[in-house]
Design brief:
Elements: E1 3-8, H1 24-39, H2 44-49, E2 52-53, E3 56-63, E4 72-82, E5 86-95, E6 98-108, E7 110-111, H3 122-131
Antiparallel strand pairs: 1-4, 2-7, 3-6, 4-5, 5-6
Amino acid sequence: MVHNYRVRVRYGETDQMGRVHHASYLHYLEAARIEMLRDLGCPYTEIELQGFLLPVIDLSIKYKGAVLYDDIVSVQTTVMLKGRIRIGFNCQLFVHDAIVSEAIVELACLSKETLRPVALPEFLLRAIQDAGDSTLQQ
């Protein structure tokens, strides 16, 4: 399953060299992840209302090319279950069909009440499994 999210680079996301600042990539990754969950029928607000939190526990980014102000960044995301408690998102970022970055983001599922690790909720697991190999677009 591949989800596509697009964002136009804003001026405030660039550095003095005119390139997207490395920290801005975190916002693109988060937005892509949130939109993917929403398109799966599991908006993050619903996940929290059901008593779960999904904090980032690991993040790796490889920068492969420059991204400039006003570029359109396409984030292609795939999701993978990593046991009962963890979920991973593999992301590739493209500008003009060229890969500019690759990232892996891993989240853990916590109880909102106790802040202790718990199994991923059934409704989220089911949504991921039901999506299968279909492509989600935004």
